[in-house]
Amino acid sequence: MEDSMSEPTKSEGEISCKELSAEEAVQFADRLVEKGEVGQAIECYLSVADRYELPPADICLRLARCYMRLDDPAAALDWATRVVDAGQDYGVWQAAALIATKAARRLGSAHFRQARKLAVLSSFTTESWVPLLQLAALRLGILLDVYQCAYGQYRQEVLNPESSLYKFAPEMVLIAVDTRDLGIPDFVQDSVAVVDQEVERWGGYWQRILEELSATILQFTFVVPETAPFGHFGAKLQGSRQRVIQAPNLRLGELAGPKVALIDCERLASLVGKLRWYSPRYWHLAKMAVSPEAQPLLARHTAAVIAAQLGLSRKCLVLDLDNTLWGGVIGEDGLSGIRLGQGPEGEAFVEFQEYLRSLKERGILLAVCSKNNEADAREPFEKHPEMRLRLSDFVMFVANWKPKAENLREIARELNIGLDSLVFVDDSPAERRAVRKLLPEVDVVPLPEDPCFYVRALSDYLLFEPVSFTQEDSRRTELYRARAQLSAARRGVESLEEFYASLRMKATIGPFDDFHLPRVAQLVGKTNQFNLTTRRHSLAQLEAFARDPNCVHFYVRLQDCFADHGLVGVMIAFAKDGVLDIDTWLMSCRVIGRTVEATMLAELCRCAVERGCHTITGTYIPTSKNGIVRDIYAQFGFELISETQGTTRWRYDLAGRGPIENRFIEVEHVFGAGNDSRAASTANAA
The sheet that has 579-587: what strands, in order across it? Predict the structure, then answer.
């Protein structure tokens, strides 16, 4: 065979690749690369990659190398980062990371969804792991510029205000420490005092960093070692090391505020097994606290937490029905013929539905996208006794015979979210492939053939990582279902004025208080679209604003005839010399197009008049997400006063133009806004 393939023409090479086995095609392409025929080799590698739902890591790596040789950094980056989805081989990840970082430097920060400066403060060697973290982050569209402290120097870096850490001025700080840093012996006589001391120490490091930097902190939790001198008896012994080490993890979780996230290394070590998590050989050779075998897993999870902190988690899980939520085809097998709840397969589908219900209850939206007659598709939810999910658990239910890519576009449009907020789950490899090709923005989970492993496959999808859990999160399905109803209502009226009036909207406006500050901090930390400046103020900073007599601050809650949407808007402005300057103006995307923005500006005008301010100023700082509000100031009569590299400054002449009008939303004030405590009152919309 080698003789017949040694000198093929291009067309012969293409035909040979398609006809050869995958192993033979790769060997053939490797020879083409050696001969310098890189373009032809790429076509051969691609023909192999196309045979798999997720191409093997070694094929991804070969394609990345070839594209770099052809001076195509974008394609090289794409294939290098696909290694992240293709396995956990440490050597392949290292090779892919080298290519990906070179390609990323060539492309520049504008190519990525987010770019951030990250400082890694470690008590063990992280030089081999950080490139894997950068690779996993690049897979999620995040470019990390990383500073690493010298081995074991994290204390000095944190405590010295002149250290390289603070000169680097990172936006994120990762404290990568090991259980050895606790210094806990096999047995502790006074375990309470030891735990208190450790919690105070690590909390002190957090406080010091947050005093010096406007940054988010991430910290590894401590892993209970594989060795247990007291054996199983240690599980009941008050001062045993395995019990004492667990206590700081729990206490630090309670202490961590909105600006601190924990990477649960104890859970990850248990996930892979502690004999695989830690390698004595690599510890003694290179002071690696995490074995090379487990480092890709740690990189993926750390990158997912970083993505969540940057507001890149996904919002909506879109599900097929037949052979996804139950076994069989409802339109052919009928209600009594589908497999659900009885036998191993039926139990697996029930377990999957229960896991989906858990995701929904903590804020993930569920939607249905099924090729089915709608009446057939709804029947199991209405009549099958083993169904764990109900129609009310779904924000949208789409069952028809249109292409699923078309239905996914419609779901995103109706919910007013981007395609990059959707995750698609379907048992059919053909449907998954079609969605990947037609809608690359949508993440597609590769379900295994055996439904017993559906929960594990979805659990391994990491972009549902939350950053908080509030009452608003638990009500998210209700709120987004109301959004879909709103979209339908909009199509049924003749004019915008009729539409707004039909909603019967009511807003509650009040100053920041202890009850509302956590939700305010959540919105400030994650809102991207309707956010004029995207300033990520910490909870401590927001509390300070609430105490500042020169600060006007208020939240807006909204309800209409469909739902109580909760806290949806935040305004922060500072008064000085007769001018009220807007620092932060943001609004939840789920109420865009309701005139809430006019209500917020009308309230700001009221506050300005009360303070004797004659002018309101504001800034628009452009990002990749907030183009929707580029012209919002102009729409309300503000005058452009300056522009520098896309950042614009605006001024509203309150004395000359009068207050901005709120026409459609009834407003109730709760103790006023802008620190002027007074009795609640109600002001009807004009």
Answer: 639-644, 647-653, 615-620, 579-587, 564-576, 551-559, 506-510, 666-669, 681-683
Sequence-ordered alpha helix ranges (H) in 339-470:
343-361, 374-383, 404-415, 429-438, 454-459
- In three-state secondary structure terms, 172 is strand
Query: CA-CA distance, 614 to 373, in Å (whole number)?
Result: 61
In terms of Cα–Cα distance, which of 132, 147, 146, 53 is closest to 100? Answer: 132
Q: Which domains does the chain have, with CATH numbers?
A: 112-312 (3.40.50.1110), 316-459 (3.40.50.1000), 495-683 (3.40.630.30)
Copy the structure tokens of residue 669. Answer: 């004030």
Four-CA torsion 142, 619, 613, 549, nearest 10 degrees = 20
pLDDT tens, position by position, 216-275: 999 999 999 999 999 999 999 999 999 999 999 999 999 998 899 999 999 999 999 999
Structure-token match 């090709």, residue found: 437
Reported in sequence order, the residue ranges of 588-644 that DSSP labels E, i.e. its strands, are 615-620, 639-644
What are the distances in angstroms from CA 375 to CA 330, 379, 424?
Answer: 10, 6, 22
Q: Which residues contact 221 (CB under 8 A, 6 or more apart)?
A: 249, 252, 262, 263, 264, 265, 266, 267
Cα distance between residue 318 and residue 369, in whole Å: 6
CB 300 within 8 A of CB 258: no
The Cα 81–Cα 131 span in angstroms is 12
Give the start-end residues of each E strand in 30-167.
114-122, 142-148
Q: Which residues pair with 566 in a beta bridge?
A: 558
Cβ–Cβ under 8 Å, residues 66 and 38: yes
Tokens of 591: 């109420």
For residue range 338-386, what is the model confidence (pLDDT) as tens digits?
999 989 999 999 999 999 999 999 999 999 999 999 999 999 999 999 9
Alpha helices of 384-428 — where are they, by DSSP H?
A: 404-415
Nearest to 60 by CA among 8, 2, 135: 135
